[in-house]
Design a protein that fits this description.
The structure is a single chain. The protein is an alpha+beta fold. The chain is built from 13 helices and 37 strands. Strand 16 and strand 17 form a beta hairpin. The longest helix has 20 residues, at 46-65.
C-alpha cells in the first residue's frame, strides 16, 4: 500500500507483573482490559476512556493510511453487492403443515421470515420482518425462531450487542402480539413441550457466558418464577436443550471437548423428571436421536476414533445395552446421521471429502449419492419431516454455486430446487479451475491444499496467492463457493485452503494431532504448505498472503512469529493471540471449556507449552509482514484487548517499516457486522488491503 505521513499510535506502557509456576512475564499493555461493566457504563472512568481513545486512535490511523483506497473499496463493495440477488428467497421447507420461507427485499439488510399453510399457493403470513426489529440498532441479530406444536406461538431470540447473550420473547402468530415477557441472558435456543404452554431454555453465566443452566417457563407466568431444571456445575462443560425429531422427547445435553451426557423427558410431561441415558465418562462422547423404541447414538465408544452408530432401548438406555448399527471404520469419519421412517441417512467423510449414504431400515438398499468433482462440499439439511422419501441436501464447490437439491430416496431421482444466482453477467463456472494438491509435512504426514483460480491466471512466482486456514476444535472448513471471492480470482489471485491438522478433514485423529501438546502441528502444517506453494512456483514470498480468523487468527500470530519471511501480507480477524493470560483467567468467557483444546496452564507443563507458541508472548524484535488486524469491541469469544495488546507490542518490538493496522468495529462482536451489506463492506476492506499490496486497485 502507499506510504503515508500518518503517525501510528504509540500505546502507553504500564508494566504489570504476571507470575505463574515461578515464571515471570511483564505485560506492558495489561491495562487495556476492561470489564463489561466498564464498557457499558454511561459515564466512562479514566481507564475506559484511555482504552477507547487508543482504539479510536488506531481506527483514525487506519482511516488515514487507507484514505486513498476508499473509492476503490466502495467500487469493490458495489461489485460484490451486485452479484447478489437482493430480492432472494430460500427454498421453502415443510414442517407441521406449514411451508417456511426466508426472503430478502431489495435494499434491505435483514431477512423476512414468513410461512404459508398447507401449500405454496396459500397467502403469505409474515412472521418476522427483521428490518423493522433492527431499526435504531447498530447491531441486530434475530435467531432461535421456534414455533409451538399447535403453530400459534413462536419463541424468538434477539441480540443487540453482539455478545451472544440473547433475550427470549414470545409472539402470538395469530394476533401478531409480542408478549411483554422477556427472558434475559440466554443462549438463544428454546424447546416447546407438547402442551403448547411450556418451553425450556438455556441460561448463560453472566460473567463467563458459559451455558450452564436449563430453565422451564410457563406462559402467563413471570420469568422470575421460571423453574431451574438443571445446573451444569462442571466448569469444563456447557449444557443445552433440544427435542427429538419425532417430538416425543426433550433432551438436555451436557458437553465438553472429550465427554458428553444426555438426559431425556417425555415431551408430554414437561413437569416430569429427566432420566440420564448414560452418565458422563472421560473420553466417552455420544449424541442421540430417536426412532421407535430406541435411541440411536453417534459415539466413540469402544475406541471408535472416527465414531460409529449404535442403538439402545429407551426403556434401559445405559451403555451396557448399546449395540452397533454402523461399525467403526478406520478410513471414514462418521460426522452425522438423520432418521426417516423408511431410511437412515449417514453423513461421512473419507479422504477429506463429504459422502452422503442412504440406507433402508429393511436393508434392501444401501448406496451413496454420486459426486464427481475433485473437491466439493455437500451436507444434509435439517429435514424436519419424518415420514417422507425426500431428503434435502446442499452441494457446492469452489467453482459451482450452492445448490439446494431434493433427492427421492425411493426412485433415486433428484430435483434441483435452486442454484445460487450470481448476477452481473460475468460469472461462468467453466472460467475457473479447482484442484487438490498434497503436501508432505515435516513429519511425513500428507496435508491437502484445495486451490481455485481463474483459468487465465498463470501460475508462477509472480502470482498473488491467498492462503487460508483455521485448524482448531475439529472444525473442517469446506471447499465451498463464494461470490465475494470472485473479486480476487478475477484480479489474478489464487485462493488456497490448507486442510491442516486441528480440523477433522482426514478424520478424528487429524484433530487429535492438532491440539493440546500437538498444537504446533497446526502451525507447522500451514508453514509447510506455504513453502510447498513457493517451492513449486505457485507464487513467491513477495506475493504470498495469509488469512485466518479467531483460532485461525492465533494461527496467523504463530506463523508470523515462526516464519514472517514467507508472507507479504497477513490478515488476522478477531485473533486469539494472548493465549496464556486468557487461559489462566477463568472469569473470561469460555475459558474453562477450552482446557481440553489448548491445555490448562494452571498445570506447569501446559503453561510452558502454550507460552512457547502464544503469539503475544512470542512477539520478537524482527521483521514482520504487512499486517491488518480486525476486532470487535463487544466480542465475547475473543476479547478486543487481545488483538489491541498484540498490535501495541508488535509496534514496540518489530524492526521493519511494513504496515501494521488495527481496525476495531466499536459496534460489533465476534461475527462482525450484522447486516448483509455491512458485512460486505468489511470484506471489501480486507480484499482492498491485499489488492493494494499487489498494486491492483484499479484492475
Amino acid at each position: 500500500m502507499k506510504s503515508t505521513d500518518a503517525q501510528f499510535p504509540i500505546a502507553e506502557k504500564q508494566p504489570t507483573k504476571l507470575e505463574k509456576h515461578g515464571d515471570v512475564r511483564i505485560d506492558n499493555y495489561f491495562w487495556m482490559r476492561l470489564t463489561d461493566a466498564q464498557k457499558n457504563a454511561i459515564v466512562k472512568d479514566e481507564q475506559t476512556q484511555k482504552v477507547v481513545d487508543y482504539l479510536e486512535a488506531e481506527n483514525a490511523y487506519f482511516d488515514k493510511v487507507t484514505a486513498y483506497t476508499k473509492e476503490f473499496q466502495e467500487d469493490l463493495f458495489l461489485e460484490m453487492k451486485n452479484r447478489i440477488k437482493e430480492d432472494d428467497s430460500s427454498v421453502p421447507y415443510k414442517d407441521n403443515g406449514y411451508y417456511y420461507i426466508t426472503r430478502y427485499e431489495i435494499g434491505k439488510q435483514y431477512p423476512i421470515y414468513s410461512r404459508k399453510k398447507d401449500h405454496l399457493e396459500a397467502p403469505e403470513k409474515i412472521l418476522f420482518d427483521v428490518n423493522e426489529h433492527a431499526e435504531g440498532f447498530e447491531y441486530f441479530q434475530l435467531g432461535g425462531l421456534n414455533v409451538s406444536p399447535n403453530n400459534k406461538l413462536a419463541v424468538f431470540a434477539t441480540d443487540t450487542v453482539s455478545r451472544r447473550q440473547y433475550f427470549l420473547r414470545i409472539k402470538n402468530l395469530e394476533t401478531g402480539e409480542i408478549y411483554k415477557d422477556i427472558i434475559e441472558n440466554t443462549s438463544g435456543g428454546s424447546v416447546w413441550a407438547n402442551d403448547n404452554k411450556t418451553f425450556f431454555y438455556t441460561k448463560k453465566n453472566p460473567e463467563t457466558l458459559r451455558s450452564e443452566k436449563i430453565f422451564r417457563h410457563v406462559l402467563g407466568t413471570s420469568a422470575a418464577e421460571d423453574v431451574e431444571i438443571y445446573h451444569e456445575k462442571d466448569l469444563t462443560f456447557s449444557t443445552y436443550v433440544t427435542k427429538t425429531k419425532s417430538d416425543e422427547y426433550i433432551i438436555i445435553g451436557s458437553q465438553s471437548t472429550h465427554s458428553s451426557e444426555s438426559q431425556f423427558l417425555d415431551a408430554n410431561n414437561p413437569t416430569g423428571k429427566f432420566k440420564v441415558i448414560q452418565k458422563r465418562e472421560k473420553e466417552l462422547e455420544y449424541d442421540i436421536s430417536q426412532y421407535k423404541e430406541h435411541f440411536y447414538i453417534l459415539t466413540n465408544k469402544d475406541g471408535a476414533t472416527n465414531f460409529k452408530l449404535m442403538k439402545t432401548p429407551i426403556s434401559n438406555p445405559s451403555k451396557e445395552n448399546w449395540v452397533d448399527v454402523i461399525s467403526h471404520r478406520e478410513e471414514t469419519l462418521l460426522e452425522d446421521f438423520s432418521i426417516f421412517k423408511e431410511y437412515l441417512v449417514l453423513e461421512e467423510r473419507t479422504n477429506g471429502l463429504n459422502k452422503i449414504r442412504i440406507k433402508r431400515w429393511d436393508e434392501k438398499e444401501d448406496y451413496y449419492l454420486p459426486f464427481n468433482e475433485e473437491t466439493y462440499s455437500a451436507g444434509v439439511f435439517g429435514n424436519p419431516e419424518f415420514d417422507t422419501d425426500i431428503i434435502r441436501y446442499s452441494y457446492n464447490s469452489f467453482t459451482t454455486p450452492s445448490s439446494v437439491i431434493d433427492f427421492n430416496m425411493k426412485d433415486q431421482s433428484k430435483d434441483i430446487k435452486k442454484e445460487q444466482a450470481v448476477l452481473g453477467g460475468k460469472f461462468k463456472k467453466e472460467n475457473y479451475t479447482s484442484k487438490r494438491v498434497w503436501v508432505t509435512a515435516r513429519d511425513g504426514k500428507k496435508v491437502a491444499i484445495s486451490l481455485v483460480y481463474h483459468k487465465d491466471t498463470q501460475l508462477n512466482k509472480d502470482t498473488p496467492l491467498l492462503q487460508y486456514a483455521y485448524g482448531s476444535y475439529g472444525h473442517t472448513v469446506s471447499d465451498s463457493f463464494s461470490t465475494t471471492r470472485l473479486s480476487l480470482l478475477d484480479r489474478g489471485f489464487v485462493f488456497a485452503l490448507a486442510h491442516i491438522r486441528g480440523s477433522q478433514y482426514l478424520g478424528r485423529e487429524w484433530y487429535e494431532d492438532g491440539k493440546m501438546f500437538h498444537k504446533k502441528n497446526t502451525f507447522t502444517d500451514f508453514v509447510d504448505c506455504s513453502k510447498y506453494l513457493i517451492d513449486n512456483a505457485y507464487t513467491s514470498a513477495k506475493h504470498l498472503y495469509a488469512m485466518g480468523g479467531s483460532a485461525g487468527g492465533l494461527l496467523m500470530g504463530a506463523v508470523v512469529n515462526m516464519n514472517p519471511e514467507l508472507y507479504n501480507g497477513v490478515i488476522a480477524a478477531v485473533p486469539f493471540v494472548d493465549v496464556v493470560s486468557t487461559m489462566l483467567d477463568d472469569s473470561i468467557p469460555l475459558t474453562t471449556g477450552e482446557y481440553d483444546e489448548w491445555g490448562n496452564p494452571n498445570n506447569k507443563d501446559s503453561y510452558e507449552y502454550i507460552k512457547s507458541y502464544s503469539p503475544y508472548d512470542q512477539v520478537g524484535a524482527h521483521e514482520y509482514p504487512n499486517m491488518l488486524i480486525i476486532t470487535g469491541y463487544h466480542d465475547s469469544q475473543v476479547q478486543y484487548w487481545e488483538p489491541a495488546k498484540w498490535v501495541a507490542k508488535l509496534r514496540e518490538l518489530k524492526t521493519d517499516t511494513n504496515l501494521l493496522m488495527l481496525h476495531t468495529n466499536m459496534d460489533s462482536g465476534h461475527g462482525g457486522a450484522s447486516g448483509r451489506f455491512e458485512a460486505l463492506k468489511e470484506t471489501a476492506e480486507e480484499f482492498t488491503f491485499l489488492l493494494a499490496l499487489e498494486n491492483k486497485l484499479h484492475l
